[in-house]
Design brief:
Helices cover 75% and strands 0% of the residues. By secondary structure, the chain is mainly α. α3 packs parallel to α6 and α3 packs antiparallel against α7.
Length: 283
């Protein structure tokens, strides 16, 4: 069998195992779920509040944004954190020592994190649909749109997580990245139509995949009448496909290059140095 095919099979098996471990670990699940759950509770507390200028519940309008934020932090930041931690404890170095080991490792991490992100999104979406009035889960188009937006969105953001995990050598340095991602989420209009921002910020926000992921999720879950608040007064599905597709192509082209360069620098001495740095951190 082709060595790459063997590596893919090993990666799929690794991803399946990591998915099972995450979904059966209550502590890890709560670590990923607490933020969207708190956000849903806060929006539910608004009660009968409505979107200004539109007779539509404010809480329901925020649900797609909460889902998009959750996908970004669970998928993108989760993958970056996992790669960084595996560099610190030597897991990646062990993968490097086997033929096509790094390739199989990356396949497993990406598939595992994509599956976890999708499963957790469902865990957040189901109670949100039951609690908030105004969402439209009964339409076939809702689930079709939700499916392709989520697939393209994950293809666009997961390579970014891979690149960040390869570029930053320890988990402490990812704190700055987290703040940067939060800023990108804010200017990308994830929680609200980007038309509420100044024109120059709208152009910046549309450069990031977070904007298109949030827009696509709003188009899937919210009534078509709310598209009037978006740029051009429409959900811009074609533009969403092109933008997320472009990010996916660029990300999957750059990620292997960055990972190969990072893997070449991995050695026993570098892992030992990182372990010593971890041991010296204040507990």
């Amino acid at each position: 069998m082709n060595p790459r095919a063997v590596a893919v099979r090993a990666g799929v098996r690794r991803g399946r195992i990591e998915f099972g471990q995450t979904m059966t670990n209550a502590g890890e699940l709560m670590g990923w779920l607490w933020l969207p759950v708190v956000a849903l509770v806060v929006m539910y507390a608004f009660g009968d509040g409505s979107v200004p200028g539109v007779d539509f519940p404010l809480g329901a309008q925020a649900v797609p944004g909460i889902l998009a934020m959750h996908a970004v932090f669970t998928g993108l930041m989760g993958l970056a954190l996992a790669l960084t931690m595996d560099r610190e404890d030597g897991t990646l170095l062990r993968a490097k020592a086997t033929p096509n080991g790094v390739f199989a490792y990356v396949v497993g991490k990406v598939l595992g994190k994509a599956a976890v992100t999708t499963a957790l999104l469902v865990l957040v979406l189901v109670p949100a649909v039951l609690v908030f009035d105004g969402l439209e889960p009964g339409r076939v188009s809702t689930w079709l749109t939700l499916s392709w937006v989520l697939v393209l969105g994950l293809l666009a953001i997961l390579p970014i997580g891979t690149i960040l995990g390869a570029l930053f050598g320890n988990t402490q340095s990812l704190g700055f990245v987290t703040l940067l991602i939060m800023g990108m989420v804010v200017v990308s209009g994830v929680f609200y139509p980007i038309t509420a921002l100044p024109g120059w910020l709208q152009w910046i926000g549309q450069a990031f995949p977070m904007y298109w992921l949030g827009l696509g999720l709003r188009s899937a879950l919210l009534p078509d009448a709310l598209a009037a608040a978006e740029i051009g007064g429409s959900w811009r599905h074609l533009e969403t496909v092109v933008a997320l597709g472009a990010w996916a192509v660029v990300g999957f082209a750059l990620a292997p290059v960055v990972l190969r360069r990072m893997a070449r620098r991995e050695s026993g001495s570098s892992v030992a140095a990182r372990r010593e740095q971890v041991a010296q951190r204040p507990s």
